C-alpha cells in the first residue's frame, strides 16, 4: 500500500522508516491505513480490501447500527 500524503508520498509503507511509521500512528488515520501502518511496523505487507469487501463491510456496519437502533426502540415501547 502506498502512502498518499506527507514526506513519503507515493512510497510503499513497508519501505518507509519505522520512526515515520511510529509518528503516523499518532495522527488520525482511517482504519485501513492504520492496519497497514501496524503491519508495516511488523515487517509485513498489507493487502488492501477490494472495493466489494469495503462495500460489504460498510453495509454490515450500517445494518448493525440499524439493529441496535431498532432494539432500543423496542425496549422503549415495552417499558412505556
- Domains (count): 2
* Low-pLDDT residue spans: none
| Alpha carbon gap, first and last residue | 52 Å
User: What is the number of helical segments per DSSP (H or I, 4+ residues)?
Assistant: 3
Shape: elongated
**Helix/strand-derived class?**
mainly alpha
Q: What is the helix content?
A: 55-70%
Mean pLDDT: 86
Annotation, overall tally of beta strands: 0
Give the ordered list of helices and strands: HHH
Radius of gyration: 19 Å
What is the percentage of strand-forming residues? under 5%
Main beta sheet strand tally, sense and closure: none
What distinguishing features does this structure have?
about 80 residues; mainly alpha
Characterise the protein shown here:
- With 80 residues, this protein is an all-alpha fold.
- The chain has 2 domains: 1-48, no CATH class; 50-80.
- Helices cover 59% and strands 0% of the residues.
- It has helices at residues 18-24, 31-41, 51-79.
- Helix 1 (18-24) packs antiparallel against helix 2.
- The chain is elongated, with a radius of gyration of 19 Å.
